[in-house]
UniProtKB/TrEMBL annotation, chain A:
Transmembrane segments: 112-136
Protein name: Regulator of SigK
Organism domain of life: Bacteria
Species of provenance: Nocardioides immobilis
GO biological process, one term: regulation of translation
Pfam hit, one: RskA_C
Keywords: Cell membrane, Membrane, Transcription, Transcription regulation, Transmembrane, Transmembrane helix
Region (Disordered): 242-262
One Gene Ontology cellular component annotation held by this UniProt entry: plasma membrane
Gene Ontology MF, one: sigma factor antagonist activity
InterPro entries cross-referenced by the UniProt entry: Anti-sigma-K/W_factor (IPR051474), Anti_sigma_zinc_sf (IPR041916), RskA_C (IPR018764), Znf_put (IPR027383)
Topological category with respect to the lipid bilayer: Single-pass membrane protein
Domain Putative zinc-finger: 21-53
TrEMBL record, chain B:
Listed GO biological process terms: DNA-templated transcription initiation; response to stress
Keywords of the record: DNA-binding, Sigma factor, Transcription, Transcription regulation
Similarity comment: Belongs to the sigma-70 factor family. ECF subfamily.
Pfam family, one: Sigma70_r2
Name of the molecule in the record: RNA polymerase sigma factor
Superkingdom: Bacteria
Segments forming domain RNA polymerase sigma factor 70 region 4 type: 141-193
Length: 262, 201
């Protein structure tokens, strides 16, 4: 077994452990008691776990029942709110395309192995990892819900740095960057979709040369996107609005730029 | 979950305390289409409930007012994302309100807040004095009763997380629990509450 396989084995065990723990976070998630990173991970888990989604919904309902205090806000607030909405366009409904999407590819878990000897488990996990790699990857990219490893490795990396940008409308985008993994992940929350006929495009800037495209963002207000390409030497990550399908080089000024720590 | 079922069974939590208030789900759906009058009606029906929660978490009245405003702008913006199959309208509104309130206290780092004791349940809150008050207090009593079914640790963990805005890791530290167990207490406690109050099904 090579060093590479050892690494993969450890990661896979960790993934399985995290998967197991994830269910236990539903309550804390329902009352917003997770930190940003835990929340991002749990939301990834939610996409592939209908049981957890239903549980979170019911626990949010329960938490709302706890909140029985009714306090009238100051009278002037109503006018402020009604004036404020004049400048805000309601989001379109989620269409099937943007919804929680594809009956995700569940990576085969192996509960039947958990009681057996560690060596056997280790060997089997490597085997599963290799099989997954060989068989799942052609049709399940690294950033698909069932096959999260690259994204999760960045989120879980010991040297992961998080750079947050808040937008005036209250939405938020976070770049999680791990130099050791050489990759970056963008997490968006409530982000307005790109205007019709355009896409958000991601860029990585190396110390020299022009920005290199790191892919397009999906049409989702809440997205977790693994940036394409090697980010290990990147100095910043940018987001621009580009014509549908993206551009070879940025054609507009970035709407957001994230300086990466050196 | 059928919204009709909610309306009839929904009394314990569905904000319109008398159960006879406006159909909030319908107001949300009309708001999503840009109907300002519907949104104004939604505001009138729910602002006190939303602000009550925001104020309890944020505590500072000026900041709470800002957060409540943000919350309603967000409700307007995202009304189309409300899915009645997944829960009641009030729960959805309060989820947004809670999230924004927690974001505010965390980003503010709220040093002064953390120095103050977290036992703030006795803080005086100006309850609304409408005819709904009796029903609201029935509802509150029902919730209080349900809370007595929890263990002390479950109750404290939930209150610290939900009303205190602390993360489960911070809750564990505040309650001297081993790291990682607060989240379990929060979940166990919420599940027991859910089954006692009978919501969310």
């Amino acid at each position: 077994m090579t060093d590479h396989d050892d690494t993969r084995d450890t990661r896979d065990t960790r993934d399985a452990q995290r998967e197991y723990d994830a269910h236990a976070l539903s309550g804390a998630y329902a009352v917003d008691a997770l930190d940003d990173l835990e929340r991002a991970r749990f939301e990834e888990h939610l996409r592939q776990c209908p049981d957890c989604r239903a549980e979170v919904d019911s626990l949010r309902e329960t938490a709302a029942a706890l909140s029985t205090d009714a306090v009238e806000p100051p009278a002037g607030l109503r006018a402020d709110v009604l004036a404020g909405i004049e400048a805000i366009r309601p989001l379109p409904p989620l269409t099937e395309h943007g919804r929680n999407q594809p009956a995700p590819v569940e990576r085969p878990r192996r509960p039947w192995l958990l009681g057996t000897g560690p060596m056997l488990v280790a060997a089997a996990l490597v085997l599963v990892a290799l099989v997954s790699t060989a068989w799942l990857r052609p049709w399940a990219g690294d950033d698909e819900p069932g096959e999260m490893t690259a994204t999760e490795r960045v989120l879980a990396a010991d040297d992961a740095d998080r750079i947050v940008q808040r937008f005036p409308d209250g939405s938020r985008a976070t770049v999680v960057f791990s130099r050791s993994e050489g990759r970056a992940v963008l997490l968006t929350e409530d982000m307005a979709l790109a205007p019709d006929g355009s896409d958000y495009q991601l860029w990585l800037q190396a110390p020299q040369g022009s920005p290199v495209s790191a892919g397009l963002m999906p049409d989702q207000a809440d997205a977790t996107v693994l940036l394409e390409g090697d980010a290990s030497r990147a100095t910043w990550v940018g987001i621009t609005v580009e014509p549908d399908g993206g551009s070879a080089q940025p054609t507009t000024d970035p709407i957001a730029a994230f300086d990466l720590p050196t | 979950m059928d919204p009709g079922v909610h309306a009839s069974a929904g009394a314990p939590h569905v904000g319109a305390p008398a159960g006879a208030g406006p159909d909030l789900a319908a107001l949300l759906q009309r708001s999503a289409r840009g109907d300002r009058a519907a949104f104004a009606a939604l505001y009138d029906a729910t602002a006190a409930r939303v602000h009550g929660l925001v104020l309890r978490v944020v505590r500072d009245p000026t900041q709470a007012e800002e957060v409540t405003q943000e919350v309603f702008l967000e409700i307007w913006r995202t009304a189309s994302r409300f899915d009645p199959e997944r829960g009641s309208a009030v729960s959805w509104l309060l989820t947004i309100g809670h999230r924004k309130a927690v974001d505010r206290v965390r980003s503010a780092e709220a040093a002064s807040r953390r120095e103050s004791t977290y036992h703030h349940r006795n803080q005086t809150v100006a309850h609304d004095t409408t005819a709904d008050a009796a029903q609201a207090s029935l509802e509150a009593r029902r919730v209080r009763t349900a809370l007595t079914q929890l263990t002390e640790v479950q109750r404290e963990a939930i209150e610290l997380a939900y009303f205190g805005g602390y993360t489960h890791t911070e809750v564990a530290a505040l309650l001297d629990l081993p790291v990682g167990t607060a989240k379990t207490r929060i979940r166990d406690g919420l599940i027991r509450l859910r089954d006692t109050i009978g919501v969310g099904r």
